[in-house]
Structure formats: C-alpha cells, structure tokens
Amino acid sequence: DFTTVIELGSADAYKPGAFLNRARSRIAEGQFAQARADANEAIKLYSAVKVRGAKKKLGEAYNLRAAINCVDGRSAAAKADNVKAVSLGATSSKCGLR
Questions:
Q1: Is 65 exposed, middle or buried (0-12, 13-18, 19+ CB in 10 A)?
Q2: Contacts 24+ apart (CB under 8 A), 72-80
Q3: Where does residue 34 rank: exposed (0-12), middle (13-18), buried (19+ CB within 10 A)?
C-alpha cells in the first residue's frame, strides 16, 4: 500500500510518510538496504516541506535510519543520525552510542 501511494504521486503531504512507513515494513522483512533508501527519501522530503508536524516526523525518520544503521553495523552513521534525531526532538534510539 505504501508503494502504491508513492507510485500514484498522491498529494505531496502523504509521500514522506509513505516512505517512512515503507521503511518500517522493510525493516520487518530484513531488507535493510531498501529500508535505508526509503528513510533517506523520507528525510529528503520532510526536510523540504513546511507542513505542520514535519520537524517531528523528520526526527522520527532520522531515528529510524539510526536504527537501520545500528543493525547494519554502521555505528558511526547510527550515532550521527541519533544525534540529529534528538536535536529535532525525537527520543534517543541509543544506537551507535557505545
């Protein structure tokens, strides 16, 4: 369903959330490279939009990418994403902080 929202070119306000949710689905399936690509796209889109709640969602996207990087053994990238997520008001994922 998230892929359909993305492919249909639905309202731009829905696209970043579709990428973020598809990333979560892909993590559950163990598809970390694809999940990271979706998180990257969500970060790009949330950074560009000026809608209510975008900053919070951007923090969630960085937090999600931190978790992906942590699981994938990219601790430096996980730490950087975690720091960015916290600066945007997200809860620390604790990934990459060892």
A1: buried
A2: 72/32, 72/36
A3: middle
Q: pLDDT-based confidence at 39, cuts 50/70/90?
A: very high
Residue 89: count of CB within 10 angstroms of its CB: 11
Q: What's the pTM value of the predicted model, to 2 decimals?
A: 0.84
Cα torsion 48, 24, 14, 55: sign? negative
Contacts of 34 (CB under 8 A, 6+ apart): 26
Q: Taking all residues of the chain, what is their mean pLDDT, rounded to a whole number?
A: 85
